[in-house]
Amino acid sequence: MAMIEFHDVSKLYPGGSAALSDVSLSIASGELVFLAGPSGAGKSTLLKMIAAIERPSTGRVLVNGQDVGGIKPRGLPYLRRKLGLILQEQRLLMDRKVLANVMLPLVVTGAAVEHAEKRARAALEKVGMLSKAGSMPQTLSGGEQQRVAIARAIVHRPQVIIADEPTANLDRDSANLVLSTLEAFHSAGVTCVVSTHDEYFLDRADRVIYLSQGRVTEAWQRNPVVEDAA
Ligand SMILES: Nc1ncnc2c1ncn2[C@@H]1O[C@H](COP(=O)(O)OP(=O)(O)OP(=O)(O)O)[C@@H](O)[C@H]1O
């Protein structure tokens, strides 16, 4: 079943040229898909459309069958509950401990503090960062901070993880750990869409969609999933 579908999606930013042009793609439930392409190709724009942070100028974006392009503000929390977002502009709060950072998405949606803390500890354990729960973010390496950001993104157990360049500026070992963390969620059935510049990861990927100047220029799949005919 398709979790994410783009049908002839174009995006024009006000006053700008087309950030995306006629993009059509389908991502199945449980897939791990990499989005590649040069800076400015439209990767961030595409990811933000899945979360309805940006809206298509034309075309349709469906998440779990729901058209999210025209979603009303009151429908956004329902959509966002399904999604775990690791976006470039969402840094950790440096004046709060790791645990508080990961609890925050639950606390702001009204969860009880004890419940939020329990969930946050479980999320930190999943990304191998529970021992740093009491640390301040600036005492962590870039890769560790990124794993905390992943814990924050999955604390509400989303069906889909959207990660925009989660390994940017990391050394190879840290990048590998971040990627293994995402792969573990994929193995647990979570749909993952991850943008990257890193050829090393693209070589290992099962499915890559290349964007250039807002268009899908290449897309391949190493081991195509054979749909069960039944
Ligand atoms: N809010 C905005 N307003 C106007 N133009 C924008 C906005 N966001 C992105 N753009 C433009 O849209 C195009 C695609 O940008 P986008 O950030 O989606 O690319 P990207 O592939 O994610 O690049 P990078 O790898 O550098 O993050 C670029 O030309 C960019 O300048």
Q: Could you explain how this protein is built, in words?
A:
It is a single chain. With 230 residues, the chain is α/β, with parallel strands linked by helices. The chain is 32% helix and 27% strand. The protein contains 7 helices and 10 strands. The strands form 2 sheets. The chain has a 6-stranded mixed β-sheet, with helices on both faces. It starts with a strand and ends in a 9-residue tail after the last strand. The model has no long low-confidence stretch (mean pLDDT 92). It binds adenosine-5'-triphosphate. Adenosine-5'-triphosphate binds at residues 13, 16, 19, 37, 39-45. Residues 4-230 form the ABC transporter domain.
Structure, briefly:
The chain is 32% helix and 27% strand. With 230 residues, the chain is an alpha/beta fold. It has a six-stranded mixed sheet with strand order 6-7-8-3-9-10, with helices on both faces. The chain has a four-stranded antiparallel sheet with strand order 2-1-4-5, covered by helices on one side.
Topology:
Layout: E1 2-12, E2 18-28, E3 32-36, H1 43-50, E4 58-63, E5 66-67, H2 76-81, E6 83-86, H3 98-108, H4 113-126, H5 142-154, E7 160-164, H6 172-187, E8 191-195, H7 199-204, E9 207-212, E10 215-221
Parallel strand pairs: 3-8, 3-9, 6-7, 7-8
Antiparallel strand pairs: 1-2, 1-4, 4-5, 9-10
Helix pairs in contact: 3-4, 3-5, 4-5, 5-6
Bound molecules: adenosine-5'-triphosphate.
Organism: Noviherbaspirillum suwonense
Keywords: ATP-binding, Cell cycle, Cell division, Cell membrane, Membrane, Nucleotide-binding
GO molecular function: ATP binding
